[in-house]
Amino acid sequence: MQSEQNSPTDHAPKRSFAGRLQSTKLPVWVSLLLLLALIAVGGWGMIESNANERRADEERVLLSQKLEADLAAARRQMQETISVQTRDLQNLFGTALAWAVRSSMLRTNLDEIDQYFGDLVKNPRIALVLLADAEGTILRSTDRKYLDAQFSSQFPAALLQNADVSIHAGESNRVRLVLPIQGLTSRLGTVLLEYSAPS
């Protein structure tokens, strides 16, 4: 039987990659190149990371601005819709009230008009309701100081000329709803209803 000879490397423990790298003699310039490559890769990663953060910030700002613009447009659209619906409701209410007043005037029942007006001012937003005849004399009013006064001495005379239900700005954040009362052949008078604008 032959004796087996063991080579010295057979029993030596296997070295790790790091250990082999330490024992390998590399020229200094190769080490410097590797170091510069590591620094360049790290620097590039930092630059790329900063650029990504800047882009993300810019996108957030743009998204925020777009969202604000969309919200403002939606608010404007909503306000416009509400405004149109409010005008439609005012016209509808004004037309109904004008017909009721017309009916009472044709029957010369001014007490009934007083009752309409009295019921209207029970609403806390309605400040004043009055009726002026065709010549502009105030016949009925929820505020007694206006009775028998000339409309044009208290309010713009042009309001007596409106042919249709109209809405005007009043004083102290009030709205004036002006209702022409038409008879069969001529104008019988004008109703003015003044109320607080919604805040």
Can you walk me through this structure?
This protein has 199 residues and is α+β, with helices and mostly antiparallel strands. It is 53% helix and 18% strand. It has five helices and five strands, in the order ααααββαβββ. Helix 3 (28-106) packs antiparallel against helix 4. It starts with 7 loop residues before the first helix and ends with a strand.
Q: What is this structure, in a nutshell?
A:
With 199 residues, the protein is of the alpha+beta class. 53% of the residues lie in helices and 18% in strands. The chain is built from 5 helices and 5 strands.
Strand order of the largest sheet: 2-1-5-4-3
List how many beta strands DSSP finds.
Answer: 5
User: What is the average of the pLDDT values?
Assistant: 84
- Give the SSE order as H and E letters: HHHHEEHEEE
In terms of per-residue confidence, which ranges show pLDDT below 50 for 5 or more consecutive residues?
none
Number of distinct helices: 5
- Helicity level: 40-55%
Major β-sheet profile: 5 strands, antiparallel
Structural class, by secondary structure, is alpha+beta
Strand residue content: 15-25%
Shape: rod-shaped
Assembly status: single chain
Give Rg in angstroms: 45 Å
Q: For the terminal residues, how far apart are their CA atoms?
A: 113 Å
List keywords for this structure.
199 residues; alpha+beta; 5-stranded antiparallel β-sheet; 18% strand
List the helices and strands and how they pair.
Layout: H1 8-11, H2 17-23, H3 28-106, H4 110-120, E1 126-133, E2 138-141, H5 151-154, E3 166-169, E4 174-182, E5 187-196
Antiparallel strand pairs: 1-2, 1-5, 3-4, 4-5
Helix pairs in contact: 3-4
